[in-house]
Each structure stands twice: as structure tokens, then as C-alpha cells.
Write a structure and sequence with these properties.
By secondary structure, this protein is of the alpha/beta class. It contains eight helices and ten strands. A hairpin with a 2-residue loop joins β6 and β7. It binds adenosine-5'-diphosphate (ADP) and magnesium ion. The site of adenosine-5'-diphosphate has 14 residues, from α1 and β9.
Length: 217
Amino acid sequence: MTGVFVTGTGTEVGKTVVAAALARTLAAEGKRVAVFKPAVTGLDEEGEADHQLLKRAAKSTQSDEEIAPYRYGPPASPHLAAAMAGEEIDPSRLLAAARSAASGADALVCEGVGGLLVPLSPGYLVRDLAVDLGYPLVVVASPGLGTINHTLLTIEVARAAGLEVAVVVLTPWPERPPAVERSNLETITALGEVEVRTLPWLDLTDPTGWPRLSWGR
Ligand SMILES: Nc1ncnc2c1ncn2[C@@H]1O[C@H](COP(=O)(O)OP(=O)(O)O)[C@@H](O)[C@H]1O
Ligand SMILES: [Mg+2]
């Protein structure tokens, strides 16, 4: 069983898009792909929810409940969204749900929530879940100004907990990347001692046309 944990430098950086592209790549290789999202918030807002895009990209037949055991309306940190619903996210339930999703598949693509230090419950961070699952990390980041600091912070926080950073993915990568973006890629590679890949702008309505996303080969 192989799996990856897709995290990022923050919220709205492209984690769902990268996780979806990765799920699609694995599915196109003939693998049965399961997707997992520990908690989804912001269901009150317009647009396709993370677990729905992940499911579509992976061609998964999992239920919403199987993909995302905790789902909330308000766009808030998961620990707060859970508190507003009068509950607390239970780490053992999350682990059981992730393992159950993985058990029916050849590969599991798990998307984190926000960044690594976001609390799922008051005492259990996204990073703790990543450690408990034990999958290598995909770190999603923006290509432009500010990304060196955010990305290197994320890599340090990951490695401090013993997590393996498999790759950094910069998204959306411009068709004609300006000097700053190209330099950011080189600087993160050098200072982060990590492989860096890029993902171009994707038409999210049509996964059949997406490029493959892979690394280390
Ligand atoms: N490669 C890409 N192709 C298309 N849209 C992208 C790409 N990268 C980021 N985006 C856009 O950026 C926004 C945030 O992406 P999303 O994956 O939802 O972020 P996160 O999961 O980190 O919150 C979305 O509107 C998404 O469509
Ligand atoms: Mg997301």
C-alpha cells in the first residue's frame, strides 16, 4: 500500500488541485485510488468541495463520509468548526477512517487541512496526523514572491517531526515563468534540499486532459 500526504504552505495554495492531479496520475496508471480529507470546512460557501474534486479526479466510488469523516459548513479551522458544531474531532476516528479508506485501494492520497500546524482538535495538529499515518509529504506552494520563506518553514516543521518531504509542487506554474518564479524554484531546491516540481494551470472540469504529476523517476 502506498500513500502520500498532501500538505501546503497554507490555505488556498492549491493542495486540492495537486492532490487531485496526483490521484489522477495514479488512476491513469491503473491503480485503484482512494482519497481522504480529515476534515472539510466551508461547505456553506459556493463551489465544489475538496472531497468532491478529489473523488472525481481519482474516479473513486467512496462515499462523502468515507472520504471526509468530518464535514462542516463554516469556513473555519477544523478545531473551531467542530467546536461550533458542538463536537471535537477524534484522532482515533480519523486514523481508523484513513486506514479503512486505504485498505480498499492500491494507493491513498490524503489532503491535509490548511498547513501542518493547523489544529484538528485543540491538542492534535495536522502534523500529528501526518506522523501517525506515516506517508511521505507533498508540499504545495505558490510560485511567486513570499514562497521561499513559507515553503522552507513548512519543510523545517515537517522534518523536525521526522516526516519525509518527497517533493515540493509549485502551482499554478505560469506558461512563461518570470525570473522571480524560476529563481524561487532553484532557491527552494537548494536551501530546502528537496525536489521541486511544477503544475500548470488545469481545467478543473476536465481531468482527462491533465498532465501527469510524478517525481523521483
Ligand atoms: N494548477 C492549477 N490549476 C487550476 N487552478 C489552480 C491551480 N493551482 C491552484 N489553483 C486554484 O487556486 C485556488 C486554491 O486551490 P485549492 O487547491 O482549492 O487550495 P487549497 O486546497 O490549498 O485550499 C483554487 O481556486 C484553484 O482552482
Ligand atoms: Mg483544499
